Amino acid sequence: MNLFEYVRPASVAEAIAAAGEPNSAYLGAGTNLLDLMKGGALTPARLVDLTHLPDLGSIETLPDGSTRIGALVKNAALAHDTDFAKRFPVVAEALLSGASAQLRNAATVGGNLMQRTRCPYFTDTASACNKRQPGSGCDAIGGENRSHAVLGWSENCIAVHPSDFCVALTALGAIVEIEGTTGRREVPITEFFLLPGDTPEKETVLEAGEMIVAVRLPAEAAKLAANQRYLKVRERTSYAFALASAAAALTIENGAITEARLALGGVAPKPWRASEAEAALVGKAPGKEAFAAAAEAAFAEAKPSGDNAYKIELGKRVVARVLAMAAAGTPERMPALPASAFAPLPEGVVNV
Amino acid sequence: MSDAIPMPGGRNRFGSNSGQPLTRRDGVLKVTGAATFAADNHPDRLLHAVTAGATVSRGRVTFLDVEAAKAHPGVVAVITPENRPPLAMDPDEKPTRFSFRTEVLQDDTVRYAGQPIALVVAETLEAATEGARLLSPRYEEEPARHGFDAVDTYEPEAVGVGAPAKVGKGDVEAGLAAATRRVEVRYETPGQYHNAMEPHAIVAEWDGDRVTLDTPNQALVMSTGAFAAWFGIPAENVTIRSPFLGGGFGSKAIIFGGQVLAILAARMLQRPVKLALRRDQMYGPVGHRGATRQEMRLGIDDEGRLTALDHLTTSATSSFEEFLEPASNASLNTYATPALLARHKAVRWDIGTPGPMRAPGEASGSAVLESAMDEAAFAAGLDPLEFRLRNYAETDPASGKRFSAKALRECYADGAKRFGWAGRPLAPGQMRDETGRLVGWGMGTALFHAPMFQAEAKATLRADGTALVETAGADMGQGAWTALHQIAADGLGLAISMVEFHSGHSGLPDGGIAGGSGHTATAGSALHAAGTDAIAKLSELAVGDERSPLFGAGNVGVEARDGRLYRADDPERSESYAEILARAGLSEIGGAGQGARDPASAEERAMFSHGAVFAEVKVDPDLGQIKVSRLVGAFAAGRIINPRLASSQLYGGMIWGLGFALEEQAVHDRRSGRIMNANIAEYHVPVNADVPEMDVILVPEDDPYVNPLGIKGVGEIGITGTVGAIANAVWHATGIRARRFPIGIADMLTRPQAA
């Protein structure tokens, strides 16, 4: 990797000042950043190491009932926090379906939001990539793109956001707390990530020097705890990125869905909130018909960006299944294979 | 640096070390981190070398920013075709039969992406790595040639390592014409990469015109000659230390250019040099399992018997060297048929040269043979096992020779019973589990050659009653050192705790090649013979000495057991090895032995290990995700020296088969030909969660012809049969024949979602 300056700030203010310099990057656990640096895909001149900052590592319930997760909380610590997992089971399930145990032990909440796409043309410095080198083109278009986006992509970029965690956060309407030189601001996660459009290099609303200090889950999200699931379809049983995933949360009263949350992963350049599908579910009786209609609504705008038309069909089936799983109720215990198609399933969930 | 396993304190059954499920002797060293792998060596004044790899598949390097690399702090030297010191051998020469043309910066041509185009040497690994990046090469690029339909085929002369490209008997066309049913299918297998856990590495240090190499190697003594040829020095001036290998799978049997360049840099700079490949650098320069397109034609008569079998493989190789996956030859020895044809075509792509990878030929070939046999069984309306039994080969289909031993019927029976095969519905899509997932059962026949190579060994009985045995064998993790140790102890009539075992060093007697599933048979035979030789010499001392209780036993003979010689006709009369040596005033007595196949047996008999693999898969009917839920393998492979380690090898092979069937493939960009998933996050191999409940049955088999010890091999056979069994189970669950490996979710989505 390139030579870089290493800065270890003592406070958030120092960190922000240090990272305001051009070509700086924040370092969390580095589970993604350092790999990209080793491969030469990223060559920051300065790394600002956040891991020694105080006060960013706790999970708190605030007086208004919302839950605030510090940016440096480890993925594993969050997923295994009993109280958190009880209140936001879909988040825990999504976290535990990602990466490996070792990576989850190291990787941070803030870093998860900031992870980069797994598009091989982004990682590979010999390929054209508008994300890595604006204006150079996109070799994924016309290349090996079976795992690329079917929603939200542009002629400049068809890469997908790889996170599982962010999909669950998106379904539950999480708020991202950001601190910068001009102070603190809050952005809903649905607005935190940007679509590629003509500027695929700009992936989030963060300005130079701004850092994520926390992610907050609103109190009302916890009310959905009884019926929420994450489902992730992948090319092997574990330790693989999603071909298509979905997080669903439902409120069911008197045999009808009164509130629905649905977000998709692995199919779009950002964690994809499926608002039309949510709207289509409200007032309906939970069941195959309603779920199939929601699946159609979720992918109504989808189109293949290459050899990936199958992902539209797959995505619809994932949506229908995750809604059926959520309707069947959050399991009492986390399945041994979280979010897996091969976890034990409630009866009637599989189409037979 | 440890190339000796300490003498274990374990118990042994009286009179027999072989057959005992000992744990591996190197296990504690490995789990405690005390085992020294090549890249763990850090001699004083060590320099680090990193190769820069081409980022185009074909063309010429027109510019390297050598100045930028040299200016990077810590960089000591940048070696390019411009300044590379001369080598003693032309890179197109082949000093051994396992030598491949390789890249040693002989010119500016690029023949595949990832090919080394420069070597940067620096004080630290980081500086060398960044120096290599700073070279920012520019190219005159030519279009990459890649894909079975994009490139013309040619007729090769040989496939694999010197196997004929076309073998046959009978009239295949007539057989097909006479058939009542025919199955004509085309399958494809992708390029696959060895991905040993330990990346290739070398530490080279010169002392005058002698060089010492720490490098993982599957063929130690042969490789000294190969390295020596590059540098114009005698083979004895090359010492290779290879005490531990973190997996080899065929890719550490063959010397690659990077090793030569590291040795060259060490000589040029007169300092020790280490080169350790990154994971992505293992995709190209160090071999792979070549891609194949396989076309099969099977004819079946009314009785469900084959009338003809034609297996045509098109194998992909590089533009500059030929290693062709001998996949069709997997059809030569399994099923009886009056007409048989195994033939190959070849295509040249702009890729690194393929090479042997665990079960070369047989893995890809049996995947397709067993799939096609399943298709034929269904066409014939027969249970897949019954169909195979009707086509059971009593003699070798290709040569007509009798088998040395073949307990395949027992494998079928034992495997089917353990699996619960009976009652399997013939039609696909008939079985569901309790939650509605599709369930399918499939099976495949496993078969692998039982070869022997050449090996030598020494045994030394010492005055204190202990012994030292030596052979330059290779333990890649398969447990060879443990199994060989057991055999050696039996050869000496000693408990294993009394025997010190040295291996993994080229200065020891030639242990042959750890490959082809022949290492235990070959090196084991040599060790056993060396022990027997030492005992014979010891007996001579005793029976010729009036003071010995064994005096005069020459005609009736003596038996060596538990450190003593006994009169064969009177077990009351015996003497310990130590007593015999002490009376003779000797501090030790040595023996030597060789291991090789008896040519007469080889001429008369066809020699194979056999097996049967049964698989159950579950497929989510909506989502298409596939999971293997059960695997049962029954294998007959002659005498099993260590059932624990043999089972472990078979488990490993079957898991590899699972990866072949459902996961492994190099994804090449269709335009540039470059591999886009050269890392083990995106190149999938099975993870723990993929591995189901597994059962390995070791079917007893006495094979008196393979070698006096009756040893075959178990290193590769586990893959064969398994791939087909899983593919057939997927079909049985879903009715979908993907015919292109790996089988994935997209293939399953062609099945409409149930209402």
From TrEMBL, chain A:
Pfam family name, one: CO_deh_flav_C
Keywords, comma-separated and alphabetical: FAD, Flavoprotein
Domain of life of the source: Bacteria
InterPro entries in the record: CO_DH_flav_C, CO_DH_flav_C_dom_sf, Diverse_Substr_Oxidored, FAD-bd_PCMH, FAD-bd_PCMH-like_sf, FAD-bd_PCMH_sub1, FAD-bd_PCMH_sub2, Mopterin_DH_FAD-bd
Gene Ontology molecular function: any one: FAD binding
SUPFAM superfamilies: CO dehydrogenase flavoprotein C-terminal domain-like, FAD-binding/transporter-associated domain-like
Residues annotated as domain FAD-binding PCMH-type: 1-222
PANTHER family for the chain: XANTHINE DEHYDROGENASE FAD-BINDING SUBUNIT XDHB-RELATED (PTHR42659:SF9), XANTHINE DEHYDROGENASE SUBUNIT C-RELATED (PTHR42659)
Name recorded for this polypeptide: Xanthine dehydrogenase family protein subunit M
Protein source organism: Jiella endophytica
UniProtKB/TrEMBL annotation, chain B:
Pfam families: Ald_Xan_dh_C (PF01315), MoCoBD_1 (PF02738), MoCoBD_2 (PF20256)
Domain Aldehyde oxidase/xanthine dehydrogenase a/b hammerhead: 32-143
Source taxon at top rank: Bacteria
Stretches the record annotates as Disordered: 1-24
Single annotated GO MF: iron ion binding
Protein's recorded name: Xanthine dehydrogenase family protein molybdopterin-binding subunit
Species the sequence originates in: Jiella endophytica
